[in-house]
Amino acid sequence: MKTNQMRKIRIEKVTLNIGAGKDQARLEKGLVLLRSITNTTPVKTITNKRIQEWGLRPGLPIGCKLTLRKNKATKILPSLLEAVDNRLRETQFDENGNMAFGIHEYINIPGVKYDPKIGIMGLEVCITLERPGYRIKRRRLLTRKIPTKHRISKQEAINFMTDQFKIKVGEE
């Protein structure tokens, strides 16, 4: 029996994020950490709003992030999942088929050694899933919404992750 190619789920991107707040030393350590994990240059995230209680002003760098797509994303994802013992909670999946989880200490990632200059630091991992045809919501001309029956549900995302990456999903 043939399966519909347009129904196949794939990993669109994996985003690694470290929030540093106003601490510029932590931001520099985060940039070094992301570069050492992925061999790719991360970018700084800049604040747009002024929040006086937190001491934030527009133009102030408050974190760093890195987006991996295609082969790079699928290569690094098993080691990131292994850092959390291949376990995710159901609450870490959203209704659109995306998931996010935190890694408390980067030394839990297999193959990453402790660096005394960085110290102990954690990061957030966001995984975006999509099907072929999702381009219609991003294209410049004739932008359209993704039809409801073509969207990825929470249960479909859970099934994809358990089949592809052998993770366990449940409450702890």
Protein topology:
Blueprint (H helix, E strand, L loop, with lengths): L9 E10 L4 H15 L4 E4 L14 E9 H13 L4 E2 L10 E5 L19 E8 L23 H12 L2 E2 L3
Parallel strand pairs: 4-7
Antiparallel strand pairs: 1-3, 1-6, 2-3, 5-6
Word description of this protein:
The strands form 2 sheets. Strands 2-3-1-6-5 form a 5-stranded antiparallel β-sheet. It has 3 helices and 7 strands. The protein has helices at residues 24-38, 70-82, 154-165; strands at residues 10-19, 43-46, 61-69, 87-88, 99-103, 123-130, 168-169. It has one domain (5-167): Ribosomal protein L5 (50s Ribosomal Protein L5, Chain: A), CATH 3.30.1440. The chain is of the alpha+beta class. The radius of gyration is 18 Å and the shape is globular.
Regarding CATH, which class? Alpha Beta
Low-confidence stretches: none
Instruction: Compute the number of helices.
Output: 3
Mean pLDDT reading:
92
CATH homolog superfamily: Ribosomal protein L5
Order of helices and strands: EHEEHEEEHE
Overall form: globular
CATH topology title: 50s Ribosomal Protein L5, Chain: A
Main beta sheet: 5 strands, antiparallel
Radius of gyration over all CA atoms, rounded: 18 Å
Strand content: 15-25%
